[in-house]
Amino acid sequence: MLRIFPALVSIFCLAPLIFGVAGVLLPALGAGPATGSLHPVSGPFRLLLAEPGLGKSVLLTLLTGAGAPVLSLALSLLVVTFTRGSRWWAWIRRVLPPVLALPHVAFAIGFAFLISPSGWLVRLVSPILTGWSRPPDWQIVQDPFGLTLTLALAFKETPFLILMCMAALSQIDVDRQLRLGRSFGYPPHRVWEKLLIPQLYPLIRLPFFAAMAYSLSVVDMALLLGPNRPPTLAVQVFHWFQEPELALMPRAAAGALLLLGLTLGLMGLWTAGERLFSPLMKSHQTNGRRGRPSHFFSGLARVSVPTGFGVTLLVFAGLLLWSIAVRWRFPAAFPARMALSNWTSELPFALRPMGFSLAMAALVSFVAVCLVIGSLEHQNRTQKALPLTLIALPILLPQLPMVFGIQVAALRAGLSGTLALVMWGHLLFVFPYTWLCLNGNYLAFDQRYITAGLSMGRSPLACFLRIKLPMLLRPVLFSWAVGFSVSIAQFLPTRMLGGGRIPTITTEAVAIGSGVDRRLAAVYALIQLTLPALAYATALIVPRLKRGTP
């Protein structure tokens, strides 16, 4: 019975990648119905290279796609090095889940409200400190260099990498190695630098590459915060795909293939850099230099943690204020008049996308958790595991080319715009996250409990349902909540595979957030924030209710 689960994973979660690659490769080579040819031609790439502003789009993509994950990696390692073992570390553990629960689109909308020239930060100091009675003419949001987009991506990816560091540190005996290093006269940060980070980094390389792939191909945050003349390559390809003329699809496919090549090339360059840097790192590890305590980096780490949490709180508070604001003129720090009219007028229209979002997220995350449990149970009994790189492939490759290819294949099969296809697209990206969340706890379960149950005459299924599942309820529900939040946040699979026919809170939030009505955008951003928060609350509350259950 359990043998079917690896096959189901291959069919539902890995086979679409093959269709995705084929669906983007054939049109990019000019072979397919859009060109009327079954043989590869170079026309699509000529169209692509002739596109004005392509070089700048590629450069912006590389700057934001490499800058954000590298900055996030540096900050996460800095925070781990200088706060692990202190009171800050326990505080980070407590505040990390709500920070991670904030969806990217909701954060982008709130971040734009916060830092724009007429945003809340400027309002709080105007006109007392600035003398401004009207907003300055600064291009902060959608700046031409993509700095705001890079900063926002770094804000969202740093907590994720810190969480991955926390999980990886459980595989390293940190305390013993710190004591050993200090006994040789090394300050703690030197022990981390020379001994612990070289062990930690290989364990978080996969999440780092996932963050890099996301940054390179992000569309929703780039539509809200990124430059638009020209936009990043992912946004440009997305716009090309929206054009109704079928003859222009090969150009979009060529752009998607270029984005895939940029992602793989950047990862390859990073890997080559690791190999070149390795001898230098080994020399640094063994040079015997102790150094002095680094007060600057220690202070930077301790400042960055409350700063990141403070920005998240300000984003949430700004969204809340704008959602109830009736009149809020610049430079007033707070609305002159507040009411719930924005909510009461818009909530009836939001019920349909909320229903689609909740139903799809709950069902897709449930299916993903079932597939993960079945596959891990099969692995426990046969000692045959699916390769981790294969499982993580959907989040290691840029999302846009994959979704584009699946859409092309779906068009050929007549499945485009169906709810089943959208849910399948969600499952493709939800499954890797649920696997990563549940894998460690599930495999660490002490099988002697099951052996004891079997010895009492219980069936394997009864032992699983009455012993194993209740004991693993908390991590199972947490992985379900993570999958739920990932599904809620999906923009590209919903928009492209659904053909615009299946509205969700995320697609509506992006559409409204790109406009000028801040109050309406805040309402949808808060709704989008609330849905995953409810899932995480369920994951926390249900295990506590089950404690007293016999």
UniProtKB/TrEMBL annotation:
Task: Provide the transmembrane region boundaries.
Answer: 54-80, 101-125, 145-169, 203-225, 252-272, 299-325, 354-376, 388-411, 417-438, 472-492, 521-542
Localization annotation: Cell membrane
Positions of the ABC transmembrane type-1 domain: 54-270, 352-535
* GO BP annotations listed: transmembrane transport
Which keywords does the record carry? Answer: Cell membrane, Membrane, Transmembrane, Transmembrane helix, Transport
Predominant subcellular localization, coarse grouping = membrane
The record describes its membrane topology as: Multi-pass membrane protein
Highest taxon of source: Bacteria
A cellular component term from Gene Ontology for this protein is: plasma membrane
Q: Which Gene3D superfamilies match?
A: MetI-like
Q: Which InterPro entries match?
A: MetI-like (IPR000515), MetI-like_sf (IPR035906)
Q: Does the keyword DNA-binding apply?
A: no
Q: Which PANTHER family match?
A: INNER MEMBRANE ABC TRANSPORTER PERMEASE PROTEIN YNJC, MOLYBDENUM TRANSPORT SYSTEM PERMEASE PROTEIN MODB
Name of the protein this chain belongs to = Putative thiamine transport system permease protein
Identify the species of origin: Desulfoluna spongiiphila
